[in-house]
C-alpha cells in the first residue's frame, strides 16, 4: 500500500473500539518510549499495511 493510499483513508484505526482503547492503555503502561502513541499511529498503520 502506497503512502498516498494510506492517507486517502483506505486504512484506518477504529479509535473507539475496545481493542484499540486497551492497546492505547497498554502502550502507555508498558512503553519505554518518550514518543506519545498519537505520533506513531501513521507509522503503525503503514507497517501493518506493508506486512
Helix content range of the residues, please? 55-70%
How would a crystallographer describe the biggest sheet?
none
Flag low-confidence runs: none
Specify Rg, calculated over alpha carbons: 12 Å
Derived structural class: mainly alpha
The overall strand count is: 0
Give average pLDDT, whole number: 83
What does the overall shape look like?
Answer: globular
Q: How large is the share of residues in beta strands?
A: under 5%
Query: If helices are DSSP runs of H or I spanning 4 or more residues, what is the number of helices?
Result: 3
Q: What is the straight-line distance between the termini?
A: 10 Å
What pattern of helices and strands is seen along the backbone? HHH
Describe the protein in words.
The longest helix has 13 residues, at 18-30. The chain is mainly α and 51 residues long. It has helices at residues 3-10, 18-30, 41-50. The N and C termini lie close together (10 Å).
Amino acid at each position: 500500500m502506497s503512502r498516498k493510499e494510506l492517507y486517502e483513508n483506505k486504512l484506518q484505526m477504529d479509535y473507539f473500539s475496545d481493542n484499540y482503547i486497551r492497546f492505547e492503555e497498554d502502550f502507555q503502561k508498558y512503553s519505554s518510549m518518550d514518543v506519545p502513541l498519537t505520533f506513531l499511529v501513521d507509522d503503525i498503520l503503514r507497517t501493518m499495511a506493508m506486512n
